[in-house]
## 1
Amino acid sequence: MIVLLVDLGWPSALMYALIGIAQRHTPDPDSCAARHVQCDIIGNPDFYGLGIRLGIYFQWLSALLAGPSAGEGLFVNYLVFALALYVTFFVFTFGTSCTFIAEVAIMLLISLGGIYIMLISRFYRNMTTSKARTRTGIGVSIAFDLLLFPTILYGSWFWCKMATGNVRPFAESPCGTTLFLFARVTPQRMRMASGFMAFVFVYTLLAVFFYQLSCAIFFLTSLHTVLLNRREVGASEPPDQISSRVPSVPGSQISIPALLRRVIQIGAQFDRAHAVFFRQSVVSYNCGAIALSVLGVELTLVWNSISGMYDIKSPGQLIPLIIGMGILGHVVWGKLTNDFESIRGRLMGRASEAVHHSAEHEGRTVDVEAGTSFQLPDSRWMHFPSHFTHTAPEPTS
């Protein structure tokens, strides 16, 4: 119910604001003239400067490298970061300063590219986990809906305006707007390419809406079942018997709070060959998404001659850069630590076998320090050291 209210309420208010207010807004000619010198556009580094872009790229790489234990935290952190980026759309659309079409296209690439990369990584972790089921709080779904659905709605509105040739409240680049949509799109082909992008965004918008609507219907059906079962359960029945009615989620069929607190997702089990192929496919998709998003952002900056985007001077750029570097460093350090523990465990296992074999032939007493290592479902390695004394018999001649 909460997700449905979010999907219907917040996007509806945004659509009213876009159609009723933004389309009547006209950029100030003096403001636009102050932001360009001939064909060069004076960029806005506080929104898409080098430090901000690098910080976002580092977070994308972190999602690609992270294991199951750190992946969910990265997803939540990026949602908060992307929600802050989403504020720039309101500044661009409803602000008094001049905003160029290329700037909006850059922010759409950054926002939607990052969401896609994080979603694919999260889907892979949920599908390949060895747990029988994965529980995700409903708050993550609400935060995701607050970000994804309005962003797609905004993109649909933007590309529909571009396809119709009505670019208000945005301004064209001084020497023509050139964008990257899987290839270089010149001003002469802008309306045709914008029509294709409008179709993609509207189709995605409808798909997301009906998916969330189906989830809401499923939730309401489950809630109806909860209410019916609560009436049928006798007041004298022990609580443990009530909870055991649904082994997967204790008490979910008769407890409304239990139903609200968690969503059950059944994890698919793969054999080794399928898991390797699935991992390779996810890595390929994410690498392609990262490459296209980075190319789209950087080439749009170059083709539209947006200046001041390749230095880091303001604190507004340093903070996202340091955050991105810290997240990437934490993920890389975790991967290196896990690999080191794995190699050390294997070497210690082989060393203990060699010492045991040597003791049998030499007939001496040795102290053996061995260990056993195994990998947990969240990709961490557990090591159990052991120490014992072995006395081998004297060899017989």
## 2
Amino acid sequence: MAETETPVVDEETPDETGLPREQEETDEPEAEPGSEPQADASDDDDAEVSDAADAVGASDESDDESEDEDEDPPVEVKGAGGGKPPALEKPRPKRPRDPVRGVALVLACAAAAWAGFASWSWYDRANDEDLRFAELRDQVRQSGEQAIVNLNTLDYRTVGPDLKVWRDSSTGAQYDHVVRGGAEFEQQVTELKTVSKAKVLELAVSELDEHAGKARVIVAIQITVIDGEGKTVVKLRRQVAELTRTSAGWKVSALEEAPVGSSGS
């Protein structure tokens, strides 16, 4: 009778899966040292979406930076102190210039300049008029003084030429008076052999009308008379003379006198 062999169970005999039991438990792939586990497909998709979003964000940032470059650079504002970093203040937008305001400013400056020029011109003309009037007053003074001296000077030795000087120094009513009384004056001076000389002590122009050509002077005059016997008489008189402007200058048109005293020697 044949011997029945008892089956030997091998530990490495595969189970129902067909794989050895120990191998089934340890057959998972082992990660190599220094390598990372691979991500799932879903993780790869998320990474791609994130990268696309980052790219879009970077594009927007670059656009913003380009717009910022077009604007004026920020102005650095210095701090009051304390070691704080300076703050950056965005520059204010420039206001457009107002052309109307500019024109108004120019017109105002021009008006001020014209007013100053007009004032200066008026002042200059006023000074010129004052100067011219002063010069005219001096002319009246000099002419009146010489005419009054002439009309109070007469020498029996030169009576003819002296009477001619009287006529040349007179005009109007005074001229007529000299012409009418010329013969009588000559006769008296010749008979008495008198010599009269005049000297103006003081003269003032009391009135002067440039447009009318009239003036009045007040004069203090000293007249020295020497008769034929050599006797000298000094007379002090105060006279008022009216002067009229003629083509030959200022001449005496009227002469009045009032005695102020006399002295003899």
## 3
Amino acid sequence: MAISYSQSDMFNFSRFFCGFLVTVVFFQYWVMTEYKLVVVGDGGVGKSALTIQLIQNHFVEEYDPTIEDSYRKQVVIDGETCLLDILDTAGQEEYSAMRDQYMRTGEGFLLVFAVNESKSFENVANYREQIRRVKDSDDVPMVLVGNKCDLAQRAVDGRTVSDAARAYGIPMVDTSAKTRMGVDDAFYTLVREIRRVSLQIYFVLIIRSEMDNGAEALLFFSQGVHRERNRDVPRKKKKCSIL
């Protein structure tokens, strides 16, 4: 059975599809060129060391507790030049009151723990839940980062970490701020997660916009099939009765 569509159907679908493509291109190359990343985790897990290694290609040997530091770097990720705006946060409990504010403004979050400190891994769940509560969303871009992988002794095995990442529904990256292993991958993976979630949101908005404008872009396929089926069904001739 051949299915044909009216010019109006094709126009509506073309308008929808072209609008979607234009939005994706504009979104990738113009609107979303700056990404606000937030690095969270307990004190001493290496949040600052990871960030400085990414920005300056340098490992900080001495631990200096951070209150809140901001860094910016231009990078190319998957062919797109973008600006990373990175907030390195305090892990100490006395600064916990500041968390809600930076969680509200951040687009994506690195959940950092040290593989030689089991408590820091356990506390990742608390950071994740607080982020979801503040953002009021179950789909916030996050990456689970196990730092200090250069150390011989681990308190958290890789299987436990991968199981947690799977349960959270987020990627995981093993890193070493000292050797620079996985540093780029951690931040770049987070950017890709932000893009993925943002594209989903834009796609939903486009569909809603088209439907609100009365476009039948998502319905004309089924409508066309329905019309063709109706054409193929022979109509019964009405009998005439002469009184």
